[in-house]
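Appendix B. Raw example, untouched.
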Amino acid sequence: MAQITGCTDSNATNFNENATVNDGSCIYDPLVLDPVIAISELPSMIEETSGLIWFREAYWTHNDSGGAAAIYKIDTETGQVIQTIGIANGTNVDMEDITQDDEYIYVGDIGNNHGNRDDLVIYKIKKSDIPLQGDVEVQAEKIAYSYNDQTSFERKNRRNDYDCESLVAIGDHLYLFTKNWANEETRCYKAPKTPGEYGLDVYAGFNVRGLLTAADYQIENHTLLLLGYENFVPFMWVMWDFNNDDFFGGNKKRVDFAYIQGAQTEGVCFVNQEDIAISCEKSYFPPRLYKIQLNQITAKLNSPQEGFTPFQMTLYPNPAEKQVQMKIDGLTSSKFDVEIYNLSWQKVNQFSFKENNYQSTVSVKIPTKDLNKGIYFVRLKEGKRVGFRKLIIR
């Protein structure tokens, strides 16, 4: 009997009941969920939490650029740091993700916002070197690498496609997923776990429609998570029913966490086969931990939660100089506020608007002449609804 390829997931909109082989073609309705807050605020010591694993019945995380070369064990109830493991022979240029296998923890100093790094490295820490209690420093092995397809190392701050913040360990290899600032897609690279120096080739690619910040893999249910944000709305891709490491060849479903827009989600991990934890670094929200269950995404929960209607926001010109025009679609009131934040999420300006004649679509001018050159975040607030956009001042 001949095999029939098609979508084999009955929860998909294009389910083919006659298909015997999943060809990765499944299509799903949009899904918007509101994750549960597991720890409302993490301590300032780890406010730049940038990666997450579940090890020895606890969360472990690390800070990104500027922090110590260390990983931290978090109390699951209070969120307080209860153990610090320093990497004696390491530095934290821009540590962006953490992953593990049965014997080792891998910490990726792989962040590359400017696209010009030539010192990318993954630290390999033996789990048996980490005591059950107490702060220590350990020696790590080093896996250094570069991208074979990168020909230019011109400095392009948040305008390059060679940043990377997502790392998973599967079998004998590590898989890196890039954070493409320019085209908002991702490329996957495959690296050996053996210490050494490597040039990596592109292994696969996928249009994630946003900026990837973390990844995790669950071996028992053969499921990959890719976390990120688009216009400051956190999202997560769940990928399952793929063959071996053909991650993008199976089912691919995206969930948007629009109710926590402005949360800079940077770490994700499976706690078990069903529970997923997400860490958020200090941003518009305090650093915190969220939780969600896998079946909320993979089961037939295919409708956005009632009451969520996103803004459509456009800033132009962007980059801007003395002022920027802001077009807003989807307003439900004549009153709204616009706030501007810097890269440290400090509010630098605020404007209140009240239109005499209510319209769902409006266009307003926002003065920016007092802002220094750089990157800012524009926040629109109407009642409990919010929206974010990035603004560049030149």
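End of appendix B.
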